[in-house]
TrEMBL record:
Keywords: Ribonucleoprotein, Ribosomal protein. Belongs to the bacterial ribosomal protein bL33 family. This is Large ribosomal subunit protein bL33. GO terms for cellular component: cytosolic large ribosomal subunit. InterPro entries: Ribosomal_bL33 (IPR001705), Ribosomal_bL33_CS (IPR018264), Ribosomal_bL33_sf (IPR038584), Ribosomal_zn-bd (IPR011332). Pfam families: Ribosomal_L33. The keyword ATP-binding does not apply. PANTHER family: 54S RIBOSOMAL PROTEIN L39, MITOCHONDRIAL, LARGE RIBOSOMAL SUBUNIT PROTEIN BL33M. GO terms for biological process: translation. It comes from the Bacteria. The gene is rpmG.
Length: 55
């Protein structure tokens, strides 16, 4: 049986707006094998932008 960290690794989400803002979260590799893209709040721009997973 795989350990929890293997199935749900910690990933960093970086802002596509280029402000350098990041979020840290976990994702399920079985459901989302590709890179994660979420629309979240960027505190530097003070608006919602896309955040993409970085390795």
């Amino acid at each position: 049986m795989a350990r929890k960290s293997d199935i749900r690794p910690i990933v960093t989400l970086r802002s596509t707006a280029g402000t350098g803002s990041t979020y840290v979260t976990r994702k399920n590799r079985r459901n989302d094998p590709d890179r994660l893209v979420l629309r979240k709040f960027d505190p530097v721009l003070r608006e919602h932008v896309e955040f993409r997973e970085t390795r």
